Amino acid sequence: MIRAELSFLPLLYAGVFLAAVLLLWLLYEWRCARRRRRDLRVLCQCRLCAEWIRHSGSEKLLRCPSCGALNEPNLTNDI
Fold first, then answer.
1. Span 3-12, pLDDT tens digits
2. CA 65 – CA 51 distance, rounded (Å)
3. In 3-state terms, what secondary structure has residue 62?
């Protein structure tokens, strides 16, 4: 059995609680960053008017709804 003084237990409890909160925060941030990267993969910015266009991935040229310019989607996954 592990021996601990009574004055050490609140400190131990606070340390475990803070470590759990830190772990949950890091997991949340990781999931949000993953979701942002996934959302950016289906977006393309118009080279003429800078409007964001959503594409399905199968189109070779995208027509901008604002200015009508044809744009090539960014198919690289370096985002």
1. 878 888 899 9
2. 9
3. strand
